[in-house]
Target: Glutaryl-CoA dehydrogenase
Amino acid sequence: MTERAQESGGADLLLPGDLFASEALLSEREREIVLRVRGFLAEEVAPVVNDHWARAEFPHHLIKRFAELDIAGLPYGLSVGADGRVREVEPASELLNGFLALELARVDASIATFFGVHQGLAMGSVALTGSPEQRRRWLPDMARMERIGAFALTEPQSGSDIAGGLATTARREGDEWVLDGRKKWIGNATFADLIVVWARDVADGQIKGFVVPGDAPGFTATTIENKIALRIVQNAEITLDGVRVPEADRLAGATGFKDTNDVLRQTRSGVAWESVGVMMGAYEAALSYATRRDQFGRKLAQFQLVQDHLVRMLGDITSSLSLMVRLAQLQDAGVNRHNHAALAKAQVTTRMREVVARARELLGGNGILVDNDVARFFADAEALYSYEGTREVNTLVVGRAITGHGAFV
Model:
């Protein structure tokens, strides 16, 4: 066992991109969960993702296996037993949640996004803004992944300005609400069982949340074609045409955009963790290629310029992972703020772009082949760079916090 492996508690925990052994900060139980997920990803996900990515198809057969990992409910203190019963447990630490997001994205960003939409955005909306009865009604099935969730906020004409530009409406009629409008870029929407839809109440102008079944009359989801990134994710454009939702399915604690923003604060950090995973995946693929590819009579890894690329990549990964570990500590302590997650997302995704570009460059012409993995990471990074708040918007969130002056318009 190497000295570094001894320090971190075992060689099987070490990833090539985790130079300072940050994973060793996890408890023994948390490490076991990460290793279980790592094994599943290596054995069942990695062999099929390039083919599914190229065909823009989601591997639905993996959902059942995902469910068996029993990780969907962990942030909310829910665990599924062998008998299928959901029991309450200690909620997972933010550090564990982060490393799981990293682990998924290290193999494939689309799979990480699918899971992040279901667990982070959809389950998170119910957990943070639902009533106790609503949490009991929906979260256990979602923890078992018997019901897959989606999150519908972005609209065709409103992305970064969604807080003020949301056009989808909700109109109260007795014990029901009538939803009308369109949403765009909604992950999982073509096959989700439950879609959290955010709409503006025509009576008071406030944004409210509603849980809409995927088979509700008046609800249609059309797959968005011809994407260059996250091709496995089934993003859709949604149309809501007089969709009726009972008052019981309106998220009781969602009374304004501030509540929506609380969900986004939680998931924004998850995207930053995923971005570290994308960096690691690209770095590992580039490192593997450099150690086996011969050029000019020797391995690529023996050239100074190639080593420079690899070390710069590792430096960006290490600094980004260290930032995320600290953010998780702030979250676990309950002292994190919106500007913490915003800075992390802006900084880490910017570094991610640099890392995947270096990886693609290192592979030369072979870097544009999906078969070598790097091209997939390179393309998918563009989506992570933009969603959950662009760099510019997150920069303005942090700028407002440090200056006291908003500069959004």
User: Anything to note?
Assistant: The chain has three domains: 15-143, 149-249, 257-403. Residues 232 and 297 are 39 Å apart (CA to CA). The two ends are 57 Å apart (CA to CA). Residues 1-11 have pLDDT under 50 and may be disordered.
